[in-house]
Design brief:
single chain; 229 residues; globular; six-stranded antiparallel sheet; 6 helices; Recoverin, domain 1; disordered N terminus; two-stranded antiparallel ribbon; alpha+beta; Chitinase A, domain 3; disordered C terminus
């Protein structure tokens, strides 16, 4: 199931450049919410709103936030981002299923510095199955206290697409993505077995080259909003 924690963590030291953004975008499979009825919704309470509230988050943005999760039934805390990953805030792309559906909804139109308390029904969290690993029982209503630190253009932005599309033909070839991966591997300086590159490249095309033509088109890349390439 989708977790309350982003599945892949960008580097702690910056905004999660290059390779990590690409992997977040092209390797993460969007998760689906568990069943539910249309009547259920996320309840949002704004605890703090900065005087200057800009930019506001939207689908596809890369967010950096801290959040605590509680069970509504007894108020017990099941998650605290400040005790994970040496206390670094979490990076994730909004609206693509890297967190539970309720959090994707709860953090829309939110600005840096804003704090929210949100109540998420089971249908937009872990549903009837619950999430044993996260100590979340079946049919649990969840409460999150969220503090947002940064809103950045995400990996599905026009800028990210154009950065990879070296020949500007509006589609990404295996060679272009291969070169991009090599550049990012070299930049982060970590030693990897050569097979890792090939495995990542194959996985990217398996998940994104829907028509099997050997290219990832702008449509397949799924640029968010209505930006024109």
């Amino acid at each position: 199931p989708a977790g309350t924690v982003p599945r892949r963590r960008p580097p702690r030291s910056d905004m999660g450049r290059g390779l990590t953004l690409l992997l977040l975008a092209l390797l993460a499979a969007p998760a689906q919410a568990e069943g539910g009825t249309a009547a259920e919704e996320v309840k949002i309470e704004v605890l703090h709103l900065p005087e200057t509230c800009s930019p506001k988050s939207k689908k596809g943005d890369l967010l950096n936030a801290h959040y605590d999760g509680f069970l509504a039934s007894d108020g017990s805390k099941f998650y605290c981002s400040r005790t994970q990953n040496e206390g670094h805030p979490k990076w994730f792309v909004l609206g693509v299923g890297q967190v539970i559906k309720g959090l994707d909804i709860a953090m829309m139109n939110m600005c840096p510095g804003e704090k929210r308390k949100v109540i998420i029904p089971p249908s937009l969290a872990y549903g009837q199955q619950g999430y044993a690993q996260g100590k979340i029982p079946p049919n649990a209503t969840l409460i999150f206290e969220i503090e947002l630190y940064a809103v950045n253009k995400g990996p599905r932005s026009v800028e990210a697409f154009n950065q990879i599309d070296k020949d500007s033909d509006k589609k990404l070839s295996q060679l272009e993505i291969s070169e991009y991966l090599k550049e990012e591997f070299a930049r982060d300086g970590k030693k990897r077995h050569p097979s890792v590159h090939d495995e990542i490249l194959a996985d990217i095309f398996k998940k994104n080259d829907h028509d099997g033509d050997g290219f990832i088109s702008a449509k397949e890349y799924n640029v968010y909003q209505h930006d024109e390439l």
